[in-house]
Hints:
Residues 37-56 bind DNA. This protein has 93 residues and is mostly helical. It has helices spanning 8-31, 38-45, 49-55, 59-92. The chain has a single domain (8-92), classed as Orthogonal Bundle (Arc Repressor Mutant, subunit A).
Amino acid sequence: MNTIKLTQRQIKAQETKNNIFNCAIELFNSEGYNNVTVNDITKKAGTVKGSFYTHFKSKDQIIIEEFKKFDIYYEEIFNKIKKLILMIYSMNF
């Protein structure tokens, strides 16, 4: 298996993106999506608007990424259930 080594710059960029994302989700949960601005997010994240827009096109993209995480999570659960059903089905016949 090939492992990709990230540079320090790439690691820092990913950390910044994760921080912005987590701060945005926290603000959306506490203040409501429509009440949160990009300025609010960057202030909480301790970064600037340029960093926000480097990683996200808009607030909407943060919500889309959150839904993608849910999709992955539920797909994994579905696949586990599917395997269990197939296993149970094969045992009964």
